[in-house]
Automatic annotation (TrEMBL):
Name recorded for this polypeptide: MYND-type domain-containing protein
Residues in MYND-type domain copies: 157-202
SUPFAM superfamilies reported for this sequence: HIT/MYND zinc finger-like (SSF144232)
PROSITE patterns attached to this UniProt entry: ZF_MYND_2
GO molecular function: zinc ion binding
Organism: Antrodiella citrinella
Domain of life: Eukaryota
């Protein structure tokens, strides 16, 4: 089946008055128009269903810990998302719901999530599977590009983790190092930090005071304040972030406006949180 993609802009109406919004969405999703008695157009019904799925999803939980989720709300969110997918539409929140339920079903200590009522959500599983295949193809394509020119797409400082979505997103060393080993960096900070090592290739006879050469770029500082977390050079970079809710694997964070240093700070903070979380759990057991 081909799915049309819905934008989630309409979801912001939700916070204002959830109960009356729910009642309206239920009418729109499942009833006929009171004035004309005509069926409500599919394009409008699916938006109501997507809103219903989102509102149930919001009700499931007060925090990001899957162990505390209300499994009935999770299921209702899944059912609305499944109804919407059955009509051939998919929104970002539906994909999010489907993927998170799938992760929940893999947790050994949440057997309720493997109840057959979840297995029945066939259309939801279909959109999740379609999206997963799409993401795998995108990743494969990207990996192939990067493998051909790793020096151009990945910041050369060990442990940095910033990648450019295009070659032009990173700064190339402007020194005399050979083209096939010429490194690229996400920031001048990273280049400076790598210079001690790179200097041996770039300037084999360099004196200690020699500075690295790099194309002009906005200066990056190690300590970031909020004002300095933003850049305007329009270059798109990405970083792999730990998956907070799933707790395993990573998800890419892609940005044209966050500075690489800020993105790394965010990643490191999330990693710290996950470590503390894991510590708490092992203490509890
Ligand atoms: Zn870097
Ligand atoms: Zn060089």
């Amino acid at each position: 089946m081909n799915f049309a993609f819905l934008s989630d802009k309409h979801l912001h109406t939700l916070e204002k008055n959830e109960d009356s919004a729910m009642a309206w969405w239920m009418q729109i999703a499942f009833e006929t128009s009171p004035e004309t008695n005509a069926p409500i157009p599919r394009g409008i019904r699916v938006r109501a269903l997507s809103c219903l799925a989102n509102s149930q999803w919001e009700l499931k939980v007060t925090e990001d810990d899957p162990d505390t989720w209300n499994i009935d709300s999770v299921h209702r969110a899944g059912v609305f998302a499944d109804d919407c997918a059955a009509l051939g539409f998919v929104s970002a929140i539906m994909l999010h719901i489907g993927m998170k339920i799938r992760e929940l079903r893999a947790l050994p200590h949440v057997p309720e999530a493997r109840h057959p009522r979840f297995t029945k959500l066939e259309y939801l599983w279909e959109i999740v599977e379609t999206r997963n295949q799409e993401m795998a193809r995108e990743k494969q394509k990207r990996d192939q590009t990067v493998v051909k020119a790793p020096n151009a797409y990945v910041c050369a400082l060990k442990g940095c983790g910033i990648e450019g979505t295009r070659k032009s997103a990173l700064l190339r060393c402007a020194g005399k190092c050979p083209a096939d080993v010429k490194p690229s960096y996400c920031s001048k900070e990273c280049q400076k930090a790598d210079w001690k090592k790179h200097k041996l290739i770039c300037k084999p006879n360099a004196a200690a005071k020699d500075k690295p050469h790099v194309a002009d770029a906005p200066a990056a500082k190690t300590k970031m304040t909020i004002g300095e977390s933003i850049r305007t050079d329009g270059k798109e970079v990405r970083i792999e972030m730990p998956d907070i809710i799933g707790g395993s694997g990573t998800i890419p964070l892609v940005s044209k406006t966050m500075t690489p240093e800020f993105m790394k700070d965010v990643r490191d903070e999330v990693e710290k949180l996950l470590v503390t979380d894991a510590d708490k759990r092992s203490e509890a057991n």
